[in-house]
Amino acid sequence: MRPNTVTRILVSVTAAVGIAAGGLAGAGASFAASAPAAQPAVSAEAVAVLAVNNLGLSVAEAKKVQRWLKTYWGYTGAIDGQLGTGSWKAFQRCLKANWGYTGAIDGKVGSGTVKALQRLLKHSWGYTGQIDGEAGKGTKAAFKRFANGI
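^ that's the sequence the OP posted. Answer follows.
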């Protein structure tokens, strides 16, 4: 995951935690100062759980992929249109069985996952680019065709 993406996720999650705690704007000075300075607002584990990578798919398209993953690849999560760790673990099982993925079934959308996805997309969904592990415009367009064709 890019550092910019991690930063954006951390800022978003931190803001959500602040709002859920009663809002920072209405907090009195004694409340705001009472939190220990050494404690991080959000842990890395919390960010990993919330990580979603739809690779350009809309919520409706991602739901189609999740239904397919549920039917064929053991996805047990919600059909919510958010391709998170559970969705990608199921997809990695597919990619490992059929498209040369050799990495861990960890739900992370790294270059190995993308390369295997590109092989799938090149075979049947009109991807014409290189198998380079970069989810660029061509990969995302072919992934949309996949989502709308399954």
